[in-house]
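Question (not urgent): is this output format expected?
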Amino acid sequence: MKFTVEAVNIAVVKGVAKHEVAEIVLRENHGIEGDAHAGPWHRQVSLLAGEAVDSMKAKGLTLAPGAFGENIVTRGVDWSRAKVGDTVSIGTVEMEITQIGKECHSRCAIYTSAGECIMPQQGVFAKILKGGKIRAQSSGDYHIR
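Got this back:
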């Protein structure tokens, strides 16, 4: 399933909205250079569909890319169909889906500013299998296991 990258985002601390950057550099088994979630664990990168963000904007919210703490905003793929073990490639970058959604234990800055967080139901998380660079307008491919 082909898709495009709409925005790439990072933050240096966890639990806050990320800010849009021109390009991200991803390292194998590490994640995004300069992002708080980078490291040797299963949630190195988060992906969220731009269509999900649109549904929140339709409720009257003004949202910048990264408002829900997502690293990569996509257009043209339905992440609700993703399964752990599926793979995603964007340019030379290859990643494996490791988690669907997440549990929020507290109402973080994202929830406070947006009034709701869609990452727990609509976000997916991945680890990096092969590194590289990603920018907005990059093309991606989602591979169902």
